[in-house]
Design goal:
InterPro entries: GH (IPR017853), GH13_cat_dom (IPR006047), Glyco_hydro_13_N (IPR004193), Ig-like_fold (IPR013783), Ig_E-set (IPR014756), Trehalose_TreZ (IPR012768), Trehalose_TreZ_E-set_sf (IPR044901). This is Malto-oligosyltrehalose trehalohydrolase. It catalyses: hydrolysis of (1->4)-alpha-D-glucosidic linkage in 4-alpha-D-[(1->4)-alpha-D-glucanosyl]n trehalose to yield trehalose and (1->4)-alpha-D-glucan. Among the domains are: about 325 residues, TIM Barrel (Alpha-Beta Barrel), CATH 3.20.20.80; about 90 residues, Immunoglobulin-like (Sandwich), CATH 2.60.40.1180. By secondary structure, the protein is an alpha/beta fold. It contains 18 helices and 31 strands. It starts with 13 loop residues before the first strand and ends in a 10-residue tail after the last strand. It is elongated, with a radius of gyration of 26 Å. The chain has an eight-stranded parallel barrel. Strands 3, 4, 7, 8 and 9 form a five-stranded antiparallel beta sheet that branches.
């Protein structure tokens, strides 16, 4: 196992600038001879490396430095890019470039990193967030995002992929930022600028598979992969079989590379249910422990995992993997069904009732071991003392939007008032919220699935994409499936770009998001993120109450997605014991500044007991303390 410590962390493989030259190291256990093939103005020149007992070939080439272009040649064959390449300036099939990560002048010495508490994540795709689609262009959006009220941006994968554009999950040069977005120092400049204004940066990384085009790992070692396990994308990476130590290092050192060489504040690990490891220490546990040891700053590690397994976010000393948290998509699914009635595919496992949404907010996961109808087997594990920060909730993310046939967002499918109610639910809940770029201003742009593969692979991707929707009633006709946007078409990518002017055009919903995020950050109750002091219940067919408290202060959200309601407090167990006589509205989605009609909510006594009157399609946050001061009416 390669060591990785805070004081002297460095990448032991790939090309590293040293005094007088560049040190090269690559794992190629079956090669008798590995040569560095330098690409320069005078044509290629080769330099042999020395083989080691562990299959690593290494050596120093004098007289070169950062900026040199190279490939590796194995046993006299053709050259291939470095598996540990820090940059692929001409794409995934071209030469690798020597990069000196120590040459960048950082200005974030006092940046403490990210903590789980108070985290609000803003997921974005570098290529579609701005018209230019670059790291440098994204720097220009940081101040706006800071004023919005998020605490970290989460970049969809930036590792080099084939073609001009890609979601990022077809990465093959996992250590190299995509040249489509800029050079490595452009990414460093983005992170440095974010830290300068108090924003963290999280990176989405993929360790369950590599893309289908430009993956040269098998050239170097067949043991990178195993046919003992399968994933939806083919053979699994070999994390638990013979000769797996170097494969585990490939992933773990990659995580450390992003956190140290780029000063990133956290990682989102893609589809960890497809990281198959039957060994004594799961890769997720080892990776988390080692990368946390690699930096003195606080970092967050979040998994996307379909299993609803709290072990992922449970401390290692308690038998878990020790990650910060996990995407908890039950909330998204319940809300989507609640608002749209959609019940196909994985939505068939959700009834989307007000009671089920309340249970999800109270529990973090909805499925905690009970049978899932579609799978016909139990799903999930019981949630016990896990904090609210262990669960990441969303209304939109790249998967839930982009894997729809037309990339439609939630606000494209529901009325504005109901979307505002759902937004209030997300940002009032104690769990960590994730926003997907553009949802805060109800972006008109879809987020479609796009690729730019070579023609034959691209044809297969397009056919496969459309075939995925065959089971949906709306697409059983092949003619209708053919209308699903072609991932390979340039138009599909360009249609996914945000129109940032819509922040002003849709100023009402944007102001609502700013206000909800400010309340979440500054309010002494909501800032605590205490799941143990959160209760939620249905208080009507389309109305949900969420009660949160801290010390003597109470906050109550009534989220009403249906017609106006008058909730008789004494009939609702969650509300009956609350001192609502002094409740005052702190925020209502119906306020005119948010684009609402100005209808007011009231707490009133009409003789039969206290009632909470809430207008149609409105969410209201009430604040009150435990002393009785008499009734208050709404603003």
């Amino acid at each position: 196992m390669t060591s990785m410590t805070t004081a002297d962390w460095h990448l032991p493989y790939g090309a590293n600038v040293v005094p007088g030259g560049v040190r090269f190291a690559v794992w190629a256990p079956n090669a008798r001879l590995v040569e560095v093939e330098l690409h320069g103005d005078g044509g290629p020149s080769t330099h042999p490396l020395s083989p080691g007992a562990d299959g690593v070939h290494e050596g120093t080439v004098p007289g070169i430095g950062a900026g040199a272009h190279y490939k590796y040649r194995l046993d006299g064959g053709q050259g291939f890019p470095d598996p540990y390449s820090r940059f692929q300036p001409d794409g995934v099939h071209g030469p690798s470039e020597v990069i000196d990560p120590g040459a960048f002048a950082w200005h974030d010495r006092d940046w403490p990193g990210l903590a789980a508490e108070g985290l609000v994540i803003y997921e974005c795709h570098v290529g579609t967030m701005t018209p230019e689609g670059t790291f440098d262009a994204l720097i220009g959006q940081l101040d706006v995002l800071k004023r919005l009220g998020v605490s970290a941006i989460e970049l969809m994968p930036v590792a080099a992929c084939p073609g001009r554009w890609n979601w990022g999950y077809d990465g093959v040069a996992l250590y190299a930022p995509s040249a489509n977005y800029g050079r490595p120092d452009d990414l460093r400049r983005l992170v440095d600028a974010a830290h300068g204004i108090g924003l963290g940066v999280i990176l989405d990384v993929v360790y369950n598979h590599l893309g289908p085009d430009g993956n040269y790992l098998r050239v170097y070692a067949g043991d990178y992969f195993t046919d003992r396990h399968k994933t939806p994308w083919g053979d699994a990476l070999n994390y638990d079989g013979p000769n797996s130590a170097k494969v585990r290092d490939y992933a773990i050192l990659n995580a450390g590379h992003w956190l140290t060489e780029y000063h990133l504040d956290g990682l989102r690990l893609d589809a960890t249910d497809q990281i198959i490891d039957t060994g004594p220490v799961h890769l997720l546990q080892e990776l988390t422990a080692r990368v946390r040891a690699a930096t003195s700053r606080s970092v967050v590690i979040v998994a996307e995992d379909a299993r609803n397994d709290v072990k992922i976010a449970r401390p290692a000393e308690d038998g878990g993997y020790g990650l910060t948290g996990v995407w908890a998509d039950d909330f998204h699914h319940q809300v989507r069904v609640f608002l749209t009635g959609e019940r196909e595919a994985y939505y068939a496992d959700y009834e989307g009732t007000a009671a089920d949404i309340a249970a999800t907010i109270a529990g973090g996961f909805f499925y905690q071991g009970q049978p899932a109808p579609r799978a016909k087997k139990p799903r999930g594990t019981p949630v016990t003392g896990e904090p609210a920060t262990a669960f990441v909730f969303c209304l939109q993310n790249h998967d839930q939007v982009g894997n729809r046939p037309y990339g439609e967002r939630l606000h494209h499918d529901v009325a504005a008032g109901r979307y505002a109610v759902a937004s209030a639910l997300l940002l009032f809940a104690p769990e960590t919220p994730l926003l997907f770029m553009g949802q805060e201003f109800a972006a008109s742009a879809s987020f479609l699935y796009f690729t730019d593969h070579e023609p034959e692979l691209g044809r297969l991707v397009t056919e496969g994409r459309r075939e995925e929707f065959k089971a949906f009633r709306a697409f059983q006709d092949p003619t209708l499936r053919h209308e699903i946007p072609d991932p390979q078409a340039a138009e599909t990518f360009h249609r996914s770009k945000l129109n940032l002017a819509e922040r002003q055009i849709n100023a009402g919903i944007y102001a609502l998001y700013q206000a909800l995020l400010a309340l979440r950050r500054d309010d002494p109750v909501l800032a605590t993120q205490d799941r143990a002091r959160t209760r939620a219940a249905a208080v009507g067919a389309q109305a949900i109450a969420v009660h949160r408290w801290h010390e003597h202060r109470h906050r109550l959200l009534i989220a009403n997605a249906g017609p106006s309601v008058g909730i008789l407090v004494k009939d609702q167990p969650l509300l009956a014991a609350l001192p609502l006589a002094n409740a005052e509205p702190l925020l209502s989605t119906a306020e005119r500044r948010f684009g609402g009609g100005g209808d007011r909510a009231f707490v009133t006594d009409k003789g039969d007991g206290w009632r909470i009157e809430v207008p149609a399609r409105t969410a209201v946050v009430f604040g009150f303390e435990e002393d009785e001061r008499g009734p208050r009416t709404g603003a």
